[in-house]
Design goal:
heterodimer; A: 254 residues; alpha/beta; Glutaconate Coenzyme A-transferase; 7-stranded parallel beta sheet; B: alpha/beta; 3-oxoadipate CoA-transferase activity (chain B); NagB/RpiA_transferase-like (chain B); EC 2.8.3.6 (chain B); CoA_trans_fam_I (chain B)
């Protein structure tokens, strides 16, 4: 019998060691596996290389991992945000290294690693400072850059629901990097709102098949859902609204 | 009478040129305004690079969904017919030439269509590129929407970009607050003048040799 369910979230990340390369899903706050990152902080791994689109915002999740001094290097496309103060400080103080990768090349390098591609030629960034040091090649009259796959020891991903085989569905734009990161790491851990009985997920709608997933852990409903339905009443960070707008929530019509 | 369009006026002007049925990506900042001015009844499908086609306007405050955001990480909504996909598919849509149009902001555009919009090259700045370079080289047409002049009064249309490039020879048209310019093999050609602006004024402001677009050849070139 296959059961990838981890009862304790710390067990799901306990083997992540000093110096590991960790992919962290999410685009901004959407899809960021905050509870898994908290558990990673608790188990104490440091000197990490993080592959993620952003470098954390606010004080939670990836931002907190950086604030706690656990990160040696960040590979990302867009570290600078209005609320990326933890990254900004660590970077300016020279406490972490940054590898800046155009977002599409970042995604395709992750996809390539998961699909067993040795390397590929991309037209993105030709003629820009980010092309420096890369092999250039002309194919059918257009110039491309050689890009290598990006793989990781572990991928931490945020999904909506999973079953014990590790099949995963996502929610809206929180899907972002999850499906490709799941394929590109030696061990893939997915946090979801809910683990459902095998056979419950529509096979036609499964986005990440369980073959790519090693562990799933349930962290409870996100605040803006009730029984899987969108009810709103939160801000962009998922925090409850406190002003009068809070009364104007969705009547669970989705 | 003023010599230039305001932001909304410019957004309305850009929106009027987007054909019904086009797949369009709107960059962060001013280009986002174009969504508010799309002609009623036209089905323009908006792509957001974080993984969605069929993006709708911002929600009412109580209806913000943290799982439903655009490339600028702002709350958006989903229109009937919307679709979600992962990042590799999303950027495949750009790189693979499936998007009809993207509209970007700019620090500088050169007369050969080079675009600089991701970094001013300041030594202490934290670099961030996001999807700018993929967008610049991916869409069939790349329009830039910007003020003609910087706050310091310098032209953003230049002979050669001095800021770090985002893409080479990728911009096809520039909508500014004073005029619309096509990028042609002979440099910038003025397609339309706004308000009281004249061709001579544009030549003075940009320091570039500018011509008027030859209307007879425009339509086949621009599609």
């Amino acid at each position: 019998m296959i059961d990838k369910t981890a009862a304790d979230i710390r067990d799901a990340v306990a083997y992540i060691t000093h110096g590991a390369t960790v992919m962290i899903g999410g685009f901004g706050r959407a899809g960021q596996p905050v509870e898994l990152i908290d558990a990673l902080i608790d188990v104490g791994a440091s000197e990490l290389t993080i592959i993620s689109n952003n470098a954390g915002g606010g004080d939670l999740g990836l931002a907190r991992l950086i604030a706690e001094g656990r990160v040696r290097k960040v590979v990302c496309s867009f570290p600078r945000q209005t609320d990326s103060w933890h990254f900004d400080r660590a970077y300016r103080e020279g406490r972490l290294e940054l590898e800046l990768v155009p977002q599409g090349n970042l995604a395709e390098r992750i996809r390539a690693a998961g699909a067993g591609i040795g390397a590929f030629y991309s037209p993105t960034a030709v003629g820009t400072p980010l092309a420096e040091g890369k092999e250039h090649r002309e194919i059918d009259g257009r110039t491309y850059l050689l890009e290598h796959p990006l793989r990781a020891d572990v991928a931490l991903i945020g999904g909506l629901r999973a079953d014990r085989w590790g099949n995963v569905v996502y929610r809206r734009t929180a899907r972002n990097f999850g499906p490709i990161m799941a394929t590109a790491a030696r061990t893939t851990v997915v946090q979801v709102d809910e683990i459902v009985p095998l056979g419950t997920l529509d096979p036609e709608a499964i986005v990440t098949p369980g073959i790519f997933v090693d562990r799933v852990v349930a962290v409870g409903n996100r605040r803006w859902l009730r029984d899987g339905r969108f009810v709103g009443g939160v801000d962009l960070q998922g925090e409850p609204l406190v002003d009068s707008a809070a009364t104007d929530t969705v009547g669970g019509h989705r | 009478m003023t010599d230039r369009l305001d932001r909304d006026g410019l957004a309305r002007r850009v929106a009027a040129d987007i054909p019904d049925g086009a797949y369009v990506n709107l960059g962060i900042g001013a280009p986002t305004l174009v969504a508010d001015h799309l002609p009623l009844g036209s089905e323009v499908i908006l792509h957001t690079e974080n993984g969605m086609l069929g993006m709708g306007p911002a929600p009412a405050p109580g209806h913000v969904d943290p799982d439903l955001i655009n490339a600028g990480k702002l709350a958006v909504t989903e229109l009937p017919g919307a679709a979600y996909f992962h990042h590799a598919d999303s950027f495949g849509m750009m790189r693979g030439g499936h998007l009809d149009l993207c509209i970007l902001g700019a620090f500088q555009v050169s007369q050969t269509g080079d675009l600089a919009n991701w970094s001013t090259g300041t030594p202490d700045a934290i670099p961030a590129v996001g999807g700018a370079m993929d967008l610049a080289i991916g869409a069939k047409d790349v329009y830039v929407m910007t003020d003609l002049l910087t706050r310091g009064g310098e032209s953003k249309l230049v002979e050669t970009c001095t800021y770090p490039l985002t893409g080479v020879g990728c911009v096809t048209r520039v909508y500014t607050d004073r005029a619309v310019f096509d990028v042609t093999p002979d440099g910038f050609a003025v397609r339309e003048l706004f308000c009281t602006t004249t061709l001579d004024e544009l030549r003075q402001l940009t320091g570039l040799t500018l011509t008027m677009v030859d209307e007879a050849t425009t339509d086949e070139e621009s599609r």
